[in-house]
């Protein structure tokens, strides 16, 4: 089963393939000077000089998408990357999913200015999403390594790739920016940034402060999604080095779209959503469920809709970095950082009325009133308090460049499941606010995670043509849990590997061509949370079993290829082979709102192999064509076998969930300095959300976006039009929103989200 309406898909694939082939092979000789000039003008840099498959996306590309768009959505154009989201910006966190070469988001690494963002999953226990970590306009570039990433990456989850976000530095000149955007669904966004410029009286200190306010209605159903952020960054020259400090604050409020199934789409329609603002209907359905009476048509299940769901997050991320040469041979750097997070994920649940469970020892009799609704508000609550330090040294020994460093972090994470009462006559609580005065705490945990990582690496320039790098890192992560309410679970899990090697080479064939290759090993540390990872079973027996019998997930990645860079063209061809060992599979159990713990098993290995092609061809000084094609074959190598020897899931030889075999992305852009525009088209092949590949097949989709703009240089103003989903395709965006399942022949698994229709946004950007 599947849902899509791609018209003329074969023709689209043929056109996109032709563009990719043209971009890859339409090369001509050019001098090294021309190559460097072309590279400096490009928005996407295809990893020249690197031993790994890597690309860089620069701020100009980030600025020409619809304002407020997640940089993850921009990265979707790169080879090997799959990205989905149910909103037009790719910023709605419940639906946001990025995967690379068959590795899902929680198996990737993410950093901002070297500081870990954790795995950026919803309900993240050790970080925060990039959309909350920094304002989009304050990002200077994003570096993607499709393999394991460099040894100095401060992350404990980068099995299958690393994304490094780098913030913009303050300007040497006083000035600023002011941007405003209006668009579909009453969307508005205002961004402002003030630059102090270098202040001579303060030793050349320079800084900026920026702020953004964004709000939009959902594209279907009722509710809002909004964010307010403030960033500030300061740089002080100290001798030949710099002292840099930053503080980023975010307040994000999002109301959810309803998780769907194929059966629901067929029965209720593509635009079906939660009940809000129909409070009476939400209570009627809950009452019918609790009393065993028939639901009002067309509803057939209590999970067809809830009144609303929402995510509420407050974050502050701050850091202090010092970087300086000690001599002409030695350079050192060090960073200390801190992150505070407070969050709640809200669901209006029909499974527990207000106030409910009065016999529980955790029931609060003082909570709300006698006018009790047939629903209550269920929350998953988060508190993060983490502090870390990163240090590094590089030593220039002529032909050898030796680097070494460390990363340590202490993270206290609190998580709780609570219920809050509502009144029957009308809802009285803020649907986008922090809830207080619960009538029931189902469970509460305190997690402590201690992380220590160290690395050493040598880059050896053997000749003008050949450069090799080799080194290793050690990673040690200790997770401790104490249950404070609802049970007595406690224990400690360790993820440890003292030797994770990495080696690679770059060989310059001539001024235009180079060959590269690398090998790396990595480990994914256990997750410290009650809703994901080993502790999500919330069972002492299961946690002890993981401790005594399972191992952390690990990967071995071998990749290589060729790059070309001429005056008009840059391109890359890469092949890879990945062995993924000790894969821990989590199978969802029932509706997500019920909170049933997933079942965890070690399912053995996953084998991934594939091909990545990308090319950027400058047809004329104004016209440019970009294309990227990926073929990926990722399969489970083992069945899921229980301790008694019975087969729990027939996964051997099945395609890994959320891993399309074919990806094809193209962009045709024009920019003469004043007038600019880009037409991008993204083809994503078939995907599965079932481990056994029985049912749960989401058909391929082709989505196009359009950017048009004009720069009025004389007044420092840019007018920009963005159209997302230009052809207004109906398609499935996110899969696995409510977890992956073994099979779904009936199409009833409520774990997919429909994609946003065509949206239009108009922006005015002013620099001064």
Q: Averaged pLDDT, please?
A: 89
Sheet with the most strands, sense and barrel status: 22 strands, antiparallel, barrel
How many H/I helical runs? 8
Query: Would you report the number of β strands?
Result: 38
The Cα radius of gyration reads 26 Å
Low-confidence stretches: 1-41
Shape: globular
Alpha-beta content class: mainly beta
Helix content: under 10%
Q: In whole angstroms, how far apart are the ends?
A: 54 Å
Note the beta-strand portion: over 45%
Compact description:
By secondary structure, the chain is mainly beta.
Question: What do you see in this structure?
Answer:
The chain is mainly β and 768 residues long. The chain contains eight helices and 38 strands. The strands form seven sheets. It has a 22-stranded antiparallel beta barrel. The longest helix is centred in the N-terminal third of the chain and has 17 residues, at 9-25. The protein is globular. The protein starts with 8 loop residues before the first helix and ends with a strand. 50% of the residues are buried.
